[in-house]
User: Fold these one by one.
Assistant:
Number 1:
Amino acid sequence: MSERTKLVAGNWKMNLTATQAAATLETFAKAVSSRSDVDIVVCPSYLAIPKVRELLRSRPIHLGAQDVFWEDSGAFTGKVSAAMLADAGVDYCIVGHSETRGRFGKVETPASTLGYFAESDETVNLKIGRLLYHGINPILCVGETLAEREQGVTDAVIEAQIRAGLAGFDASELYFSAIAYEPVWAIGTGQTCEPAEASRICGLIRNSLASLLDEDVADQVRILYGGSVKATNSADLFHQPDIDGGLIGGASLDPQEFARIVMSAG
Ligand code: PEP
């Protein structure tokens, strides 16, 4: 088994204007400057990408995006392509987040508007294809809802999302991709998955990669945990045998808290 470098990514979601993102990044970057053994990614909103890119030029922190569309250009109002992200200097992109899949844990969103977010495994697959074509590393999110966990179908749901999301790719294309196990019931709820259980699912994902692709890529891909990670629980999660880091939502908005999380990954 290879020694994988831990990866910690912050998903700022629809928070922080470009000015606020710059201030957050400055504080965060100073606080993590001594942690060179962890790969760090920040995923600001599209509008904050140019400003964040400028600030990251002299820093060992990668730039990520939160979503992408699967065509390079055309009449797709409001969408942003992988070609545009690559041109803006983006290295990583989240795909299939439960929020873009419309699988909200706590449903505050009226059912009538949920269709707006309805990303499927098929569109996830198309997006990954376009990102790989443009040299951007996908961070594929998978995870079960609370109802699925209670029905005992968690493993089957995760395996199906991995199989469909990665269908048609060659192992050699996916070496630098990451997968985030994000139980929907843990995202933004304050309820974290037990570290041993999160590690079990990450191990299951690794086994799926080995059987779908090959042992080498399964050994190389970073498998992250996401869902209410905080500085008080991150070390426990990140030191589980099958967890290679984290995808951090709410806690990544506080630069000191996010820095403590990153520091705990080394
Ligand atoms: C996320 O949105 O990917 C996430 C993990 O959110 P939070 O850390 O707030 O649960």
Number 2:
Amino acid sequence: MKIRKLHSRLVFAFGLLLIVVQIIFLVSINTVLSKSTHDDIRLSLTAGELVFNLLREDNTQQLVQSSSILSSDFAFRGAIASGDSATIASALSNHGARIDADLMMLVGTDNRLIADALQTNPAGSQFEFPELIERAESQGRASAMVMAGDRLYQMVVVPVRAPLPIAWLVLGFHIDEKFAGNLKTLTTLDVSFLSRRRSADRWQMLASTLPKATALELTHTLPAVPTLSPASTLAVAGEDYVTLSSRLETREDITMVAVLQRSLHQALTPLRRLQMILLMVSGLSLLAALLASDRIARSITRPLRELSSLAEYIQRGDYSRTAATDRVDEIGSLAIAFNHMNTGLAAREARISDLAYRDQVTGLPNRRLFNDRLKQALGVVQRTGTQFSVLLMDLDRFKEVNDILGHGSGDQLLKQVGERLQSSLMRDSDTVARLGGDEFALLLPGSDAAGAINVAQKLLICLEEPVLLEGQKLIAGGSIGIVTCPEQGDQNEVLLRRAEMAMYVAKRNNSGYVVFDPIYEEQDEQHLSLMAELRHAVDHGELRLFYQPKVDIASSTITQAEALVRWKHPRRGLVPPNLFIPYAENTGFIRAITRWVIEEALRQRRIWEEQNLPLTISINISARDLINTELPELFAGLMRTYDAAPYWLSLEITESAIMGNPGRAMTILARLHAMQLHLSIDDFGTGYSSLAYLKKMPVSEIKIDQSFVTNMETDKDDATIVRSTIDLGHNMGLAVVAEGIENAATMQMLSDMGCDLAQGYYISRPLAADDFVRWAEASPWKLVRKD
Ligand code: C2E
Ligand code: MG
Ligand code: MG
């Protein structure tokens, strides 16, 4: 059996140890005591034998003394001499009574009985023990243990002298139960007197202190020749006796012994009692020890159990509990160490989860945590049938800030925006997270589309407040996509994807926020497949280049044309560039398109050259192209092929394309400029190019963005911006183009403002090359031909 629990093991070990110690103790005590008891018994038997011998000797002395007194009595001797039997008898009996003798006889020299005080033997009968008289004759007296009839006597024979022996005085004590009893009183031993005739098959009990039955049994069990000293153990009537036999008298025909005994059982009784007491004490001390060890074990195992349950809590990630540290022993130190470990782990886990679930720039939840919360919200919706909304927001000017002012400022912007979003939330249950880049997401549990729109409007208002970055004020601006659950999806990815689509639509439309509409998804799918088809389009000549005229306002002459790419899709028809140029830019495929546009423009320009049409074709160059260091070589190569003069082409570059990587863009622009190509800044006014940069750039033209131009007729602010931009451009020595002119009034205003070139639907929509020439010839604008 294996004891697994420490508590049980401790109690068991203590208990076992104590039991072993107690057994050894008890066995040794028992051995010592029982040996000493045995020794005691033996000693008391030896002492008993001594006492018995002394008693016998004393008896003999008493008999001898008494008989001497009587034998020397004159009257008595006279009575013997005169044969006065009456006097003899009375003297004998008187004397006998005085010493309490049991035998009182006078024997004549002829060995015949003269008188017997007790009258057991008739006068004249033969004295049974003539050898005693013989011994008394020679030694002056004789004493012996004798059997007279069935009785044992201690007998003394002394002569009655006058002066020669005239008779023999015989005195004796009966060795009877009383004698044995006295002896027992003196020695505390059992005493038995037995005799055995040679012919007999067993002993005869003469007197004994033993119980009757035991005494009888002894006559059978005592060996015929009993071992004398040392004492030995003899079983009598089922009980052990330590036995010492003492031979009294051996005669030819009879043996007499005195047997001294002590019942082993009795002798050991006090020992047994002692053993019982010891056993009880042992038992009690064992019990006490077990209880004590139980207490000790508990005092060790309880805190250990507490620590182990604490460890389980820790393992489950619950760090709220601490171990009690009120003990000053090792377990107390262990508890303190545990608590340190607990707080250490908690801090580390908090740090880890902070790293894992918090965005380090803004301190807001990151994408992972947002996804978790979103999943939880979905669970709640499924259980309770409520709803929630997700807002996905992208900053409009983050990229510029990052590129122009550096990452530090970018981070600052994100931080400030994060704080604003956070503070504009109403409910604790709302979550703002930064998903990465300049993308923020909001989770609004319990909110429907109307509620979400409300929040979106509030956010946009709070983003209109300028952000202060390195002393510059900047409006971050944002576009927000909104989805509501469960109407518009019941999965994280679906909801986020749809929110993102709505956000892109908002960005594209410049509308601040947009609630997801399933139609966007169809469009998006189209975009995806468009991407795959785009390569096919380039390779299989599905692209077309349209031309939109740029008119010199002062001379009303068509001097330039902007080349705008179109995709003549076999099924979709003419696809506008807004639907595929951004994707081509994102994938880098724009380079192939740019190459195609340059070559197609040159090809067309060569045709116009043959037709003596000295137009400058402006080509749109995207940001991706501007980081391509091979761009100048591409131009140079293709221009060589078509034998083109530099003025054939002008390049339109958006502000943001330059600002994306100003250093590199500047190098490439410088090389293009060195090739005498005209450079123009497209969509001027929408980006954040600093005038310092602008001054350094080798451009010769700026194109005011159509968003200012189209409504300038009605919008005073726009008109002011356009006027200032024209003045600015002229002051820097640049030609100024206005694009997006849709009516005559605008045209007139621009003319009044001194704008150099005009472009817009009012003049013409972009046209295919052939249509362009046809249109130009029929238009009110002059198409100059070379002579
Ligand atoms: P953009 O370079 O600013 O081109 C001017 C856009 O304004 C053209 O749109 C033109 O059709 C449109 N537009 C001209 N006049 C008016 C007007 O009076 N009213 C209105 N509402 N719009 C007018 P389009 O052709 O759809 O091109 C859009 C943009 O796509 C271009 O903006 C340009 O950034 C890009 N793009 C077009 N072709 C190319 C190309 O070959 N290469 C590159 N990289 N980008 C191109
Ligand atoms: Mg353009
Ligand atoms: Mg433009």
